[in-house]
Design brief:
By secondary structure, this protein is mainly alpha-helical. About 55% of the residues lie in helices and about 5% in strands. Among the domains are: about 145-240, Cyclin A, domain 1 (Orthogonal Bundle), CATH 1.10.472; about 250-335, Cyclin-like (Cyclin A, domain 1). It has a 3-stranded antiparallel sheet with strand order 1-2-3, with no helix packed on it. GO terms for molecular function: DNA-binding transcription factor activity; zinc ion binding.
Length: about 350
C-alpha cells in the first residue's frame, strides 16, 4: 500500500517538470518555475501581515517592507478632458462658477438667492425671511470691503446692464471689464462719472472686438449723454494708450440689413459700395453709421428690395438727411459696383 503511494508520489514528482514545461509552453510570457500568486522576490501575498499593507492615493494596496503591490483599484479621479493652457483649463473646469473679470470679485464668492423658499419649495416663514434678508445684507457688506470694490461693483453692474440692452456678446463684456479695471488701477476714475467711464470702457471694447455699436447707441443705453460718453472715451483711450482702429462703415452693414430683412445680395452690394467709396476717400471724416445707412439704402434700390429712407434711418438711429447725404455721395461709385 505504501509502495503504491510512493510510486504515485514518485510519478507525481516526476511529472512536475513536465507540467511546468507545458505551462511555459501555454504561457510564453511567464517565467519558468514562478507561480502567479508569488512576486519576483518569492513573497506570497496571502502570507503578508494585513497591518503592513497600505492603501495609496492612487488606489494601490502596497506592502510597506517589500513594496509588493498586492491589489490595484485604479480610479482616474482627474478630469476627462484635456487642456493645454490655463485659459482652456478655466473654460473646461466645472468645479464652481467660472472666473470672470466681469464681476468685481471675479466670481469667487457665492450669493444667497432671493427666492424665499426651502429645499422642498415651501415658502419660508416671516421670521426666516427676515433672517435671510439680514444675511444677504451682511453678505453684500462683506463682498465689498472698500471704496474701490464698491466702485468696481457698481461700474461692472452698469456694464452688464448695457450689454444686455445692446445685445453684445460676453466677450465684449469681459473686455469692457478689463478696460475699466485698468482705468481704476491707474486712478483715472477719480473726479469723473462712474457711469460715463463704464460706458466709455464698453464702447472701447466694442471697437476692439469689432462689434459695431455707435456712440449714439451707447449714449441711449447709458444713464449719461452721448457727448459725455465721447469725452470719457477719448480720455480713457488716450491715458491707457488704447490702439483702436477707426470704425469701419462696413461693420454696420450686416446688422442694418438683418433688421431690415434684406437679402445677402444686398449685404454684399452695400459692402462693395462702402469699399469702393473708401478707395476714393469719400467717407473720410464722415459718420460711419450714416455712411453705412446710405450704402444700405442705395444697395436696396440696386437689388430691387427697396426700403424707405425713414426705415433705414430708424434702424441706423440717424436722420433721413444723413441717409440721403450718404446715398448721394456713394452714387458716384455705384456704376462700378452695379
Amino acid at each position: 500500500m505504501s509502495e503504491s503511494v510512493r510510486e504515485r508520489g514518485g510519478r507525481a514528482d516526476r511529472s512536475e517538470p513536465e507540467r511546468a514545461d507545458r505551462a511555459d509552453a501555454d504561457h510564453p510570457g511567464r517565467t519558468a518555475g514562478t507561480e502567479e500568486t508569488t512576486d519576483a522576490a518569492g513573497v506570497d501575498p496571502e502570507d503578508l501581515d494585513p497591518d503592513e499593507l497600505t492603501r495609496t492615493a492612487e488606489g494601490e494596496l502596497v506592502h510597506e517592507e517589500t513594496g509588493l503591490v498586492v491589489d490595484e483599484d485604479r480610479v482616474d479621479r482627474g478630469p476627462e478632458w484635456r487642456a493645454f493652457d490655463q485659459s482652456e483649463r478655466d473654460s473646461k473646469s466645472r468645479v464652481g462658477s467660472p472666473l470672470t473679470k466681469a464681476r468685481h470679485d471675479e466670481g469667487l464668492t457665492t450669493e444667497i438667492g432671493w427666492r424665499d423658499e426651502d429645499a422642498n419649495g415651501r415658502a419660508l416663514s416671516q421670521e426666516k425671511r427676515r433672517r435671510m434678508q439680514r444675511l444677504r445684507t451682511w453678505q453684500d457688506r462683506i463682498r465689498t470691503q472698500d471704496a474701490g470694490e464698491r466702485n468696481l461693483q457698481f461700474a461692472l453692474g452698469e456694464v452688464a446692464r448695457m450689454c444686455s440692452a445692446l445685445g453684445v456678446p460676453d466677450g465684449v463684456r469681459e473686455m469692457a471689464a478689463v478696460v475699466y479695471r485698468r482705468a481704476l488701477d491707474e486712478d483715472l476714475i477719480r473726479g469723473r462719472s462712474i457711469e460715463a467711464m463704464a460706458t466709455a470702457a464698453l464702447y472701447a471694447a466694442c471697437r476692439e472686438q469689432g462689434v459695431p455699436r455707435s456712440l449714439d447707441e451707447l449714449g441711449n443705453a447709458s444713464r449719461v449723454g452721448r457727448d459725455e460718453v465721447g469725452r470719457a472715451y477719448r480720455y480713457v483711450s488716450q491715458e491707457l494708450g488704447l490702439e483702436v482702429a477707426p470704425a469701419d462703415p462696413a461693420d454696420y452693414v450686416p446688422r442694418y440689413c438683418s433688421e431690415l430683412d434684406l437679402s445677402e445680395t444686398v449685404v454684399r452690394t452695400a459692402e462693395e459700395l462702402v469699399g469702393a467709396a473708401a478707395e476714393e476717400g469719400l467717407h473720410a471724416g464722415k459718420s460711419p453709421t450714416g455712411y453705412a445707412a446710405g450704402a444700405v439704402y442705395l444697395a436696396s434700390m440696386l437689388c430691387d428690395e427697396k426700403r424707405t429712407q425713414n426705415e433705414v434711418a430708424e434702424v441706423a438711429d440717424v436722420t433721413e438727411v444723413t441717409v440721403r447725404n450718404g446715398y448721394q455721395e456713394q452714387l458716384q461709385v455705384a456704376d462700378g459696383v452695379a
